[in-house]
Sequence to fold (728 residues):
Amino acid sequence: MSEVKTQEFRRASAKVLANAKLQSYLGRSMGTFDGARAEAIEEISPERWEELRQQGREIKRHTLDNLDYYLEMLQERVTANGGHVHFAKDAAEARAIVGQIAQTRGLKLAIKSKSMVSEEMGLNPFLESIGTEPVETDLGEYIIQLAEETPFHIIAPAMHKSKEEVSELFGEKIGRPNLQDIEAMAGAAREVLREKLVSADMGITGANFLVAETGTVTLITNEGNGRFCTSVPRVLVSITGMEKVVPSMEDLATFIRLLPRAATGQRISSYVTHVYGPKRPEDEDGPEEYHLIIVDNGRSKLLADPDLREALYCIRCGACLNTCPVYRKVGGHSYGWVYPGPIGAVVSPVLVGLERSKDLPNASSLCGACKDVCPIKINIPHMLLKLRSQISEGSPTSSTKASFVDRITSKGYRRLMSSPRLLGMARTLGLLAQWPFSRGSFIRRMPIPPFSRWTRTRDMPALAPKSFRQVWKERLEEEGR
Amino acid sequence: MIEGVGTPSEQFIASVREALGRKAGPPERPYARMVEERASVEERAEATMERLSANRRANVDELARVASLRGWVVHRAEGVEDAVGYVYQLAQKLETRRVVRSVEDVFGDVPLDDALTSLGATVHVMARGDESAGSFDPADADLGVTGVDYAIAETGTAVILPRRGVSRVTSLLPPVHVALVKPSQTLEGLDDLYLLRRLAYLRDGVDAGSYMNFITGPSRTADIEQTLVIGAHGPRETHMVILDWGL
Ligand code: SF4
Fold:
């Protein structure tokens, strides 16, 4: 599995927060994505968008609720189309399958089109170890491969790199120094990669959707590298999470309307590629051999929990990242594993283990923006709350419990909030206690734990002189009701 | 086949079933689309074809409008000469040396080879057994010309089904791609396309083809500082020539 650093969320995010340049850049570019999405929705009309979201959600719900049935159908049809279907329960099995294919066929150069699961598996170092050269061919993925980093964003993996950094990287790693503008950089990458694209013997892709009824793998791309990967090499391998299935080809119309709009605000991407197994004997070109590897790697834990199952509806558009006030501050790497942002805060803890990702479900203000923008209406805040309570109470998926203080506070909080009388008393005490520490409407430093820990990284809003309940009551009286 | 690695399919699917707490068999609450009889899919497809031919004009107009918004250079040719002339002038402007094209009926309607050859360009047909191919590497071509199988008005998309005579890379390798579209190939929306391709698979299974490509304008990337660059690994320039006479 690719290296898990989810336990380092606090340290990693503090570093990003202190980087002023990245901060201003992050805010700006996330806003660009967000704006493009809003515009595309306006164009198709909000009513139509709602209709599509509902359709998308219902298709996903039906498919995931009957996933075993559709996986069986998919396997049967891909096989009928002349492909091979493999199942991997975890990353190690998935690597072994890819390794076996590459080694028994003597494959030396693998061109890759974006696959998140291959990140989960740590596929690139593995391929290198068996003597097959992996080359990422999506420009963003290529940049982070050269930089030896992990994706910063689901759909814009290298968005944290400035053009100066890319220029330096290209000078150092591919012998193309002093490129000034972005067009020249893209051009240099195109040239270097073209040679690989036309000579590779292995193609590796992910999948946006798998159509059960026709055994079709669908890829949505803009650059054209996915077309090379599926056209040129003699062996093609698609590696994908098991949740990507949809029942029928006709379902694709809905998702193709949803995904590019939510992701980049595009009405459709430049290319939508549909692969039905290997080339047929009479075809001019295409892979002689086709393999589809379907990976679980912890997904059945999400499937088994009715509260978390809908995390598997995700179509990886990145909209929840772009809109999330936390992601916009801490960026993608802080989340410590393949999937960042709000959806990552749900998926990663379950896939890598709750005990080492306790901070992720808390990395959210539960503002609900993610749910509002999600093209599948996935209720992320609800799932984050579920995970928080699993952490604090201990659960089947987690062997650890929250600290004593956390448990006591969360119990105390519940009592307090359910009794107006207790709440009133607590307020009065609080007003007295905060008096020495507050400056204006914020408390910057508190001396006693556990509060001192909180104010180390944040300012705490001080209790207002009048409570909301008081103000509300006075308002009503003023208006004479 | 791959022996001894991975989880056997029965075991994998059984574990998914167990996670769901479900019994084997089709969904308890069926999905209307998936229990539809073939005859009903066929009826819908027929109704679609009728609707398309009744609305052809409007669909072609919409295709031309949307395709140009999506980055195609759209030319509505009024006759054979106009279509050939357009490609001729384009090749002239680009100083084209090598052209690749596929083998499709549309080249019977629009004979391009002589015009392009008269410019001094060589025309290579990308098909097996084609003599002109020789030692020619299609990666060196500077212009690729293809027909299409469908064109979708909703999205401004050309749909190509590679097969004998139609290579996957004619529209991918050269920096400039010209797609010839007959009005009769125009569909209104994505639903029409997927319905027709679904039916093709239900009828012909494995023989329905190995690949389907949607092409919507030039290739592009915005992976560096979100700045749009037109022309990534695929063509930087795409032309849609609509053969706007009784085809
Ligand atoms: S959870 Fe929704 S918004 Fe977030 S990436 Fe997935 S589909 Fe997109």
